[in-house]
Amino acid sequence: MLKAGAGRTDITPPIGIAHAGWGAATHQRAEGVDMPFYATTLYVTDGELELAIVDLDMGVLTNRDDASIRAEVEKVAGIKPENLRLSATHTHSGPVNRQSWLDEGMELVGPYWDSLPSRVAQSVNTARWAAKPAHVGVGKGSSSININRRPALSDGTLFTGRNWDGFVDREVGIVAINDTHGTPIATLLNYTCHPTILGPANKLLSPDYPGTARQVVEQHVGGLCLFLQGAAGNCGPTHGFIGEVAVAKWLGTRLGLEAARVRLEIDPVPRKERLVEVVPSGADLGMYEDDPTGEPDDTLRVVNTSVVLPVGQFPTIAEAQAGFDSAVNTLSATRKSGSEAEIKEAVKNAKRAGFVLGNATRTVNGPMSMPIQAMRIGRAALVAIPVEPFAEIGVAVKKASPAGQTLFGGYSNGYMGYMPMADNFEEGGYEVTTTPMAAGAAEETIAACSDAVQALWR
């Protein structure tokens, strides 16, 4: 029988930290907190294999910070690095990473990221010590809070907005973990949507809609809820890029209620109805019991593999660094005397120069090797990759999976940039111009992820 436990620690960044991850933002520091940020962990073991999944309220987890957290978790909780999944919700209302174009608030960035390994390890350790015999069930629903975010102008130019005719994945994937008495331990919620409801005008630290969705599930179901971001590279919210936290709570509530509905209908133990007796009354009343008809699937496995991805052409690291430094210097000068429009233009240029530098660094050795992690927990398969995959990738992997329910997620175990489909490279757009990858990377990834899931069932 499996044993499972859940744990949580607060990882809310400090007010005043460098916050504006938007090219159109003119503020630099976070001025308040909308909701707490959390590291929420599910720990599962079959007595030999130990797995831990951590949901982190953050934009992306760099490879450097991913490695630091894994080392601390192994030291504190004893979880092998390859058996740990670290998943960012990808909120755009969190602190920036260590390298940024911002001036103010950067003094708080390094200490914040340095504090995360111990706090995440505490969450994992809490979950590990709370583990008890458990069963796992699966289910799915649908929510319409997301939309394809790659519309085009009349001249064919793509921008980031609402494309009502574009490809979108609206599946709400649920994995339910209960103790043997039926009490909820944890809920895994998988959904595909950029947390960009709160945009450049927002000055608050916020987990965006995933924070509210988790809260709603926990209120109606019990236990802890982990939000695992899906293949959201080309999917965003139906209402986005605004400064009103009420809208994030509205969409998060809608998603959370659908997830709670699905979760409450799941019973991990197979049962069959049995008529116990008929009790005489005004009408004869049938009294029933639901008897177990078999044991739930308690299989636990993990597969760690990789795929080599083709990459694009970029400047040398030295050239890209010079371009980034120049853009940052221009931004600093513009902040002192420029208009709001000039500041936004300078911020945009600095942000884009940062993309070029990041891609030059990632591709310096040619084709990139991308890790793929697949976990099996009962009838559920969980696939994780460290990119911003387009929704077509997640849907293809889920369709090819033998699992009762497959949760596919990006933004996990580090970060390597956007992953568009091959056809998207002909269209262009933000995701194509900022990816380090070349056409064909997505198709290679679909095949490799599908093979990893199949291996879990061999």
Keywords:
alpha/beta; four-stranded mixed sheet; 32% helix; 20 strands; 27% strand
Q: Please, could you describe this protein's structure?
A:
The two termini are 20 Å apart. Helix 1 packs parallel to helix 2, helix 5 runs antiparallel to helix 6 and helix 7 packs parallel to helix 10. This protein has 458 residues and is α/β, with parallel strands linked by helices. 32% of the residues lie in helices and 27% in strands. A hairpin with a 2-residue loop joins strand 16 and strand 17. The protein has two domains: 369 residues, no CATH class; 46 residues. The protein is globular, with a radius of gyration of 23 Å.
Give, in order, the helices and strands: EEEEHEHEEEEEHEEHEEEHHEEEHEEHHH
Mean pLDDT over the full residue set:
95
Q: What is the helical fraction, as a range of percent?
A: 25-40%
Please report the number of helical segments: 10
**Strand arrangement in the largest pleated sheet:** 5-4-3-1-6-8-9-11
Query: What are the low-pLDDT stretches, counting only 5+ consecutive residues below 50?
Result: none
How much of the sequence lies in strands comes to 25-35%
Structural class: alpha/beta
Short précis:
This protein has ten helices and 20 strands. The chain is of the alpha/beta class.
